[in-house]
Design brief:
By secondary structure, this protein is of the alpha/beta class. The chain has a single domain, classed as Dihydrofolate Reductase, subunit A. Helix content is 18%, strand content 26%. It is built from four helices and eight strands; from the N terminus they run βαβαββαβαβββ. Strands 4-3-2-5-1-6-8-7 form an eight-stranded mixed sheet. The longest helix is centred in the first third of the chain and has 9 residues. The two termini are 14 Å apart.
């Protein structure tokens, strides 16, 4: 069985919307990851640690389109280039898949994601894709959260977690670290 990991940047009030400020990120505070905080190189070590466990990437359609516009040619993301990609979408067409960015499979339903999790292979990491993460969390499919929590309140934007009434999920803290600029690294396993 494969592990499904959500990895992302989050404000203290739970917003994951538009952290990088790139194309397609329309949030009023877009780019909040790179503004106002002292750069501390150790903060970004989580991304390197994750790469060792990443055997595939998963995106929702909008995040796929945003990342596919920049990551294939980005020197910072060359290690992701040939990894298999899974896009969960009912609307993305096969001809919209980006060439030269590793094999890409379109999954049309949450049931397709559940079936993928039952297959052989390693960790699948979800980048961006707040709506997809909420749906997968509600379906009990996310196994781990790797979060870098930034010391700011954005007040608006897409939240990682659904506010609807649902059963409680317990998490176990696997790892945590705080940095001089106020960012927290939090790695949680979902208890089953």
């Amino acid at each position: 069985m494969r592990t499904l990991v959500y990895t992302g940047f989050m404000s203290l009030d739970g917003v994951v919307d538009s952290p990088g400020g790139g194309p397609g990120e329309e949030h009023r505070s877009a780019g909040w990851v790179f503004k106002d905080l002292e750069f501390v190189p150790e903060v970004w070590s989580l991304k390197g640690e994750e790469l060792a466990d990443t055997t595939a990437l998963m995106f929702g359609r909008r995040s796929y389109e945003a990342f596919a516009a920049t990551w294939p040619d980005s020197q910072d993301h060359t290690d992701y280039k040939e990894l298999p990609k899974y896009v969960v979408s009912t609307t993305l067409s096969e001809d919209a898949v980006v060439d030269g960015w590793g094999p890409t499979t379109i999954l049309r339903s949450i049931e397709d994601v559940a079936a993928l999790k039952e297959s052989e292979g390693g960790g699948i990491f979800i980048h961006g894709s707040a709506e997809l993460a909420r749906r997968l969390s509600d379906a009990g499919l996310i196994d781990q959260y790797n979060l870098l929590v930034f010391p700011l309140l954005l007040g608006a934007g897409k939240s990682l977690f659904d506010r609807a009434d649902r059963d409680k999920y317990m998490l176990t803290l696997r790892e945590s670290e705080s940095y001089a600029n106020g960012i927290l690294k939090l790695v949680y396993d979902v208890k089953r």
